[in-house]
Automatic annotation (TrEMBL):
The gene is ribBA_2. It comes from the Bacteria. Gene3D superfamilies: GTP cyclohydrolase II. GO terms for biological process: riboflavin biosynthetic process. This is GTP cyclohydrolase II. Residues 1-44 are annotated as: Disordered. Pfam families: GTP_CH_N, GTP_cyclohydro2. The lineage of its organism: Bacteria, Bacillati, Actinomycetota, Actinomycetes, Mycobacteriales. InterPro entries: GTP_CH_N (IPR022163), GTP_cyclohydro_II (IPR032677), RibA (IPR000926), RibA-like_sf (IPR036144). Keywords: GTP-binding, Hydrolase, Nucleotide-binding. GO terms for molecular function: GTP binding; GTP cyclohydrolase II activity. Residues 236-379 form the GTP cyclohydrolase II domain.
Amino acid sequence: MPADAAAPPPPRSAGGHIRLTSHSAGDGAPPLRWGAPTAAERGPVVGTTTTRAHRNVVGTHSGAYGVYRALAVAAGKLSREHRADLTDTSPTDVIGPHPQWADPAAIVSLDPWGALVADAFGAHIAAGIDVRPTIAVTKAQVILPEVHEAIFKGRLVPDGRVLLATGAAQVTKAAIEPVWYLPGVAERFGCSENDLRRVLFEETGGMYPELVTRSDLEVFLPPIGGQTLYIFGDPRHLSDSAVELTARVHDECNGSDVFGSDICTCRPYLTHAIEECIQGAQRGGVGLVAYSRKEGRALGEVTKFLVYNARKRQVGGDTADRYFARTECVAGVQDMRFQELMPDVLHWLGVTKIHRLVSMSNLKYDAITGSGIEVGERVSIPDELIPADAQVEMDAKTAAGYYTPGVVPDVEELKKAKGRGLQ
Ligand SMILES: [Zn+2]
């Protein structure tokens, strides 16, 4: 930084000085060999901030929540030396290891051993290395008004196993934090690892200097949201291609998923998928909803709401023929979800065949089949579940190549204003 720069000096750490980047020589970090066949050969992911010499990745744990952890330390609420007590936290269900875990190209955006660290890397933990889980697996019951309605209308029947008489569905759920193997991520996007590192560094405002100073560190814990899995039936069946798998990969839409906003089909499609998953599990199959934190096509809610206004205020009203164009005007792109990384979680689960894919997205379908997973039937959202204001989105998507068993709208149909105005 030039001497005349006006920026205040950075706050001092407990050590009294700030170290901008670490150095590779002579430290005590355990080796990390992505895609190695066993946990012992792969080595633990160590993103601790307490003993920097042990770190073998760029970034910190907990995705975006790492920033809240920093706030808690800054506010004096959390000791930076705190280590998780992992007693009784182990997964409720065994997932893997699967052959895909040992393929460095099959999984590049999560740590397949992330749920098993207490066992797989117990020796490292005992030796004082702060190894933290990046995946947690637990059990739950989920209760949804749409499932109650399906029971009331006779589409779903409680069986006391998958679906209880109370209307609660029994699930195994897993939370997964992002862990990126940078050479593999670069390959998925067809760019060089150097370019990926440089752009990640620059476009986060220089947040992670080690991206450019430590090319020996190949793994990055990015400050983004992760994903959650909801599994209906026995999770061990997910890797058995002979057992019927019903699956939806769903990208977060808080407005619809949680608050019931009717401008899109996200919640109706999600609850329809849950209904399909329950039915599939009751037939002796297994159901999976993989929920990714990629709000508003990973453009974020502010951009999304700006686009809503632009769509509804444009001359001619909210029409499907300008649905994608309005997004591109505001965001610069139509979509930043980049489904290239999405199939990783399926490979973590050992999935080789999805018998019923509850999705109309050609991008998701292409990503899944392109990663070597077979897809049988594609299940579209029933027409009666599409909210009136969401017909604009549905027409735009089917015209753009989304799967539909119905009629693809023509040019004239796309020009008809179908969305509500703002008033
Ligand atoms: Zn939505």
